[in-house]
Design brief:
This protein has 17 helices and 20 strands. The protein is an alpha+beta fold. Helix 2 packs parallel to helix 4 and helix 11 packs across helix 13.
Length: about 525
C-alpha cells in the first residue's frame, strides 16, 4: 500500500521535506542547474521555512555523485567546538539552550563548496528563492506551527521576536517574514560564503554570540572549512552502498548492512518477527561499536574501514542473540533535521542533510542576523575517556548521514532521512526494502517502521500486524506502539534510477515530504 503515487520522470527530480523547497530545487533544474544547484536551492529554502529543523546556523553533510567521473564525494559541513570552550563549564551537564552549546555553523561554507565543485548557476541565483521567502514571507506549514507549540517556550527573547512578530507565534497558513535573515542571505549571495566567515559580518556575528553567552570568536569562524573525507562504503547484494564517514555516524548503517549481508533476508520474510528481531539486534551491535570507537578523526585514531573487515563482521554476526538483548558490548577491533535528494538530467545526484540538532537548536537567534544557532555541542560526551569527549576545536559525532548506492559505477539509489538516532535505523530498513525486496521507492518509505532507543524496549508503528508484535514480545522485546505514521522514525526521501535512466521519487507522509520532477 502506498500513501501517494510514485513520481517518475527523466529530466530531473527533487524530493525534500517541504513543498516550497522542492519547488525551488525543481526551478533550479529547469533553469539548467545541476543536482547541486537544486540541492542547495532547496536546502536554503528549508533553512528559511523550517527553523525548527534547520538553519544557516547549523551543519550539513552530503554525498555527491558525479556522472561524468562516475565517483562519489563526501562533504562534511560540520563545525567544531569553539577554541575557548572549557569542559569544566559543564560540570552539571549541558544546559538546555543558549549560545554556549553551539558549534561553529558549517552550512554556508558547505553550500559554497558544493556549488563551486558541482554547480552551474551561481550562489546569487541559487539563493534567490530563499531570500524571497525570508524577505516577503511564506505561509507557515502545519509542521512549523506544531513546532512552535512544542518548542516555542524554549526560544530566547530574540528568537521569540523573530518568529513571533505579532506577539505570538504564527498559526498554520499565516505569513512569516524574516528580514534580518534575508539580509544575511543577500550578503552571502553577493559576497560568497567567505563573507559569512570573514570580515565585518563575521566580527559582528562573533561579538553578538559572545554577548548572548557563547564563547565563539571571529578566529573560530575564520578557521572553519568544509571537509571532503574519503567516503565510506560496503558491498551489499551486488551494489556498493556509500555512507558518510566520521564524524558522521553513517558507518553504523554500513556496519548494519555488512552484518545483514550474511543473512538470508528473503527467507526470513519482510516484516516478519524474525527479520525485525535480527535487524534490531544488528542495530544494537553497530551502536555499541560506535560508542566504543567513533570520534573526530582529527583527534582520535579511528579508522572506520576496520568495522567492515570480514573477520570482524563475521564475529559481530555471530553475536546476534536469539532473544532481545538488554546491553551489547562492543566488538574487539584488532590493535530535528531535514533531508533532501536531487538528480539532474545528466545523472548527477546529491544526497544532503542539514540540521540544528534539537528542535530549534540552541533556541538562540543571533541578534541582527536572523541566524538560529545549533546546539550540536551537546552531541559530545562529558566523559573524558570517551573518543567523543568534548574538547576545544573538536567536532562531535553527528547523527547526520546520507546514502548513495551504485551498481558498478552506475547510480541506482539516493536516499536518507532526518530523525537523530532513528536515521541509521530507518535507512537500514529502507536499504533492505529497496535492495533485498526491490520495493518501489514510495512503498518502501510508506512501510511500517520500528525504532529502538535502549535496552529491550522496541517502539513499533501500529500498522505492524499484531501477530508480529506478539512474536517479538515472545523473543523478549518490550513493545510500545507508535501511531500509524510516527515522525520519530524520520521523514525519508528517496530516488531510484533504473537501467533505462528513469527516475522514481518518493517522499515521506510522516512529515511534509514532497517529490516532484519533470
Amino acid at each position: 500500500m502506498k500513501t501517494r503515487a510514485t513520481v517518475r520522470c527523466v529530466n530531473g527530480l527533487v524530493a525534500t521535506d517541504h513543498p516550497l523547497a522542492t519547488g525551488a530545487g525543481l526551478a533550479a533544474l529547469r533553469d539548467g542547474g545541476s543536482a547541486a544547484d537544486a540541492a542547495v536551492a532547496a536546502a536554503a529554502v528549508c533553512a528559511v521555512t523550517q527553523p525548527h529543523r534547520t538553519s544557516i546556523g547549523g551543519d550539513l553533510f552530503a554525498l555527491v555523485y558525479d556522472a561524468g567521473r562516475r565517483e562519489v564525494t563526501a562533504y562534511n559541513g560540520s563545525g567544531a567546538a569553539p577554541r575557548a570552550i572549557d569542559r569544566a563549564s559543564f560540570a552539571s551537564g549541558f544546559p538546555g539552550e543558549g549560545a554556549l552549546i553551539a558549534t561553529v555553523p558549517g552550512v554556508v561554507a558547505a553550500w559554497g563548496d558544493l556549488l563551486r565543485d558541482h554547480g552551474r548557476l551561481g550562489l546569487d541565483r541559487v539563493l534567490a528563492p530563499a531570500i524571497q521567502y525570508a524577505s516577503e514571507g511564506f505561509p507557515v506549514s502545519d509542521g512549523l506551527a506544531e513546532g512552535f507549540v512544542h518548542g516555542g517556550a524554549r526560544l530566547d527573547g530574540e528568537a521569540a521576536r523573530v518568529f513571533g512578530p505579532r506577539g505570538r507565534f504564527p498559526h498554520a497558513g499565516e505569513i512569516l517574514q524574516q528580514p534580518d535573515l534575508a539580509e544575511t542571505l543577500e550578503l552571502v549571495a553577493r559576497g560568497g560564503a567567505a563573507a559569512f566567515y570573514r570580515g565585518a559580518f563575521a566580527d559582528r556575528f562573533a561579538e553578538a554570540v559572545r554577548a548572548a553567552g557563547g564563547v565563539m570568536t571571529a578566529d573560530d569562524f575564520a578557521a572553519h572549512a568544509t571537509d571532503r573525507p574519503a567516503s565510506a562504503a560496503v558491498g551489499y547484494r551486488g551494489l556498493t552502498v556509500y555512507g558518510q564517514p566520521p564524524v558522521s555516524q553513517g558507518h553504523i548503517l554500513l556496519e548494519e548492512l555488512a552484518i545483514a549481508a550474511g543473512l538470508d533476508v528473503a527467507a526470513l520474510g519482510w516484516g516478519s518477527a524474525e527479520l525485525v528481531h535480527a535487524m534490531v539486534e544488528i542495530k544494537k551491535i553497530a551502536f555499541a561499536d560506535r560508542d566504543a570507537y567513533s570520534g573526530d578523526p582529527r583527534h582520535v585514531p579511528f579508522v572506520v574501514d576496520r568495522l567492515f573487515d570480514a573477520s570482524f563482521v563475521d564475529a559481530r554476526r555471530r553475536a546476534i542473540p536469539s532473544r532481545a538483548s538488554e546491553r551489547v558490548d562492543p566488538g574487539a577491533l584488532a590493535a530535528d533535521t531535514t533531508y533532501l535528494a536531487a538528480v539532474d538530467r545528466d545523472g548527477n545526484a546529491v544526497s544532503l542533510i542539514e540540521s540544528v540538532f534539537s528542535e530549534f537548536g540552541s533556541a538562540c537567534v543571533v541578534p541582527g542576523t536572523g541566524v538560529l544557532l545549533n546546539n550540536r555541542l551537546v552531541g559530545f560526551s562529558l566523559d573524558a575517556s570517551s573518543p567523543n569527549a568534548l574538547a576545544p576545536a573538536k567536532r562531535p559525532i553527528h547523527t547526520l548521514n546520507t546514502v548513495i548506492a551504485l551498481d558498478g559505477s552506475a547510480l541506482r539509489l539516493v536516499f536518507g532521512t532526518p530523525g537523530r538516532h532513528a536515521q541509521v535505523q530507518t535507512n537500514f530498513q529502507l536499504a533492505v526494502a529497496l535492495i533485498d525486496e526491490r520495493m518501489d521507492v514510495q512503498r518502501a518509505i510508506d512501510e511500517p517502521r520500528w525504532y529502538h532507543e535502549s535496552g529491550r524496549g522496541l517502539r513499533m508503528e501500529s500498522r505492524f500486524p499484531e501477530a508480529v508484535r506478539r512474536a517479538l514480545a515472545a523473543k523478549g522485546h518490550e513493545i510500545t506502539l507508535l501511531g500509524d505514521f510516527a515522525e520519530v522514525t524520520g521523514g525519508a526521501q528517496a530516488i531510484a534510477i533504473d537501467e533505462n535512466g528513469v527516475f522514481s521519487g518518493g517522499a515521506d507522509p510522516r512529515r511534509e515530504g514532497h517529490a516532484a520532477g519533470y
